[in-house]
Write a structure and sequence with these properties.
This protein has 298 residues and is α/β, with parallel strands linked by helices. 37% of the residues lie in helices and 24% in strands. It has eleven helices and twelve strands. It has helices spanning 4-16, 19-26, 30-44, 60-82, 100-107, 112-117, 169-173, 204-208, 221-229, 239-242, 274-286, and strands at 49-52, 55-58, 92-98, 121-127, 141-144, 153-167, 189-192, 214-218, 234-238, 249-251, 258-267, 294-296. The strands form two sheets. Strands 3, 4, 5, 6, 7, 8, 9, 10, 11 and 12 form a ten-stranded mixed beta sheet that branches. Strand 7, helix 8 (204-208) and strand 8 form a beta-alpha-beta unit. Helix 1 crosses helix 2 (19-26), helix 1 crosses helix 4 and helix 2 (19-26) packs across helix 3 (30-44).
Length: 298
């Protein structure tokens, strides 16, 4: 007989890949997590994880069990939400993982309507631009810059957005004229820390001016925007960041117009939850811009 509570421990390890992380999420000691998972394996007569110093990975039997365990979890969570006696007002926490530009410039400023409708719902925005940010599955809804692996998640296109080059008028007036892309070699470029970047779509300058040197590197878009606005050089920014800023001027507007896409990612076991559906609705709303700076495609 399977202990239903053991499935909860199993799922947490499957999502985090580490006992300590799973224990933190479950608010128990990691040894308790290990003991419960081992007990589940004994009851099933199957090994569910391959143990290694770098983490625990699912075996074939483990992958098979995840599907059923997540269905049970989803049904339980949905039934709990369905018994609310608060007239439909949501509570609890919804965690949204997004790239830093989307989270800071599009999502955070547009939380007002959701907060007004559901004041008891806590919203966590976790921003990151690295692939491994989604590996632990510690999110309820995510926006990604590239289409992730479809395993155990539902994926749909969310929006397209364009990027351009931006600098301050003072910077442009005090540096060599830019009339074509090759002229960018004579300028201070602002971009991501190349040694930390594992998302090809963010390597904009490789596409615009091959062989470039990025003089100022930060690991987030907000830092690049602020550096450009301070007159330190030229940065590739989403139009929804650069165009509203009166301090910035678009460079090579007709020559440089990069198109990128955001993807919406939702763990399948959470799709039925009302708070997750509310977050999805919010993300689709903020991804429709009447100014044309970002265009909804999903």
């Amino acid at each position: 007989m399977i202990n239903a509570d053991d499935l909860r421990y199993f799922l947490e390890v499957a999502r985090t890949g580490r006992l300590i992380s799973a224990g933190r999420g479950l608010a128990v000691n990691h040894t308790t997590v290990g003991r419960r998972v081992t007990a589940l394996e004994r009851s099933l007569g199957k090994r569910l994880f391959d143990r290694a110093p770098t983490g625990w990975t699912l075996t074939d039997a483990g992958h098979e069990l995840v599907v059923h365990a997540e269905s049970i979890e989803s049904a339980l969570l949905a039934s709990v939400e369905g018994t609310r006696a608060d007239g439909g007002r949501l509570s609890g926490t919804v965690r949204i993982a997004t790239p830093d530009g989307f989270g800071a410039f599009l999502l955070a400023p547009n939380l007002g309507a959701l907060r007004a409708q559901h004041p008891d719902l806590d919203i966590e925005i976790v921003t990151a631009t690295r692939h491994d940010a989604l590996a632990t599955r510690e999110f309820d809804v995510a926006v990604t810059l590239e289409r992730p692996s479809p395993r155990s998640v539902d994926i749909s296109e969310l929006a397209e957005y364009r990027l351009g080059l931006y600098a301050t008028p003072d910077y442009l007036d005090s540096h060599p004229t830019i009339s074509q892309m090759i002229d960018l070699h004579d300028h201070a470029l602002i971009g991501y820390v190349e040694s930390l970047l594992d998302i090809p779509s963010l390597q904009m300058f490789d596409e615009i001016v091959p062989g470039h040197r990025t003089h100022i590197q930060t690991n987030n878009l907000t830092g690049q925007w602020l550096a450009a606005a301070a007159g330190l050089g030229i940065s590739a920014l989403p139009l929804y960041v650069g165009e509203p800023d009166p301090r910035l001027h678009r460079v090579l507007e007709h020559e440089v117009a990069l198109l990128r896409k955001y993807w919406l990612v939702v763990p399948r076991e959470l799709q039925r939850l009302a708070r997750v559906r509310a977050a999805i609705s919010l993300l689709r709303t903020v991804s429709s811009s009447p100014s044309g700076l970002i265009a909804r495609v999903g």
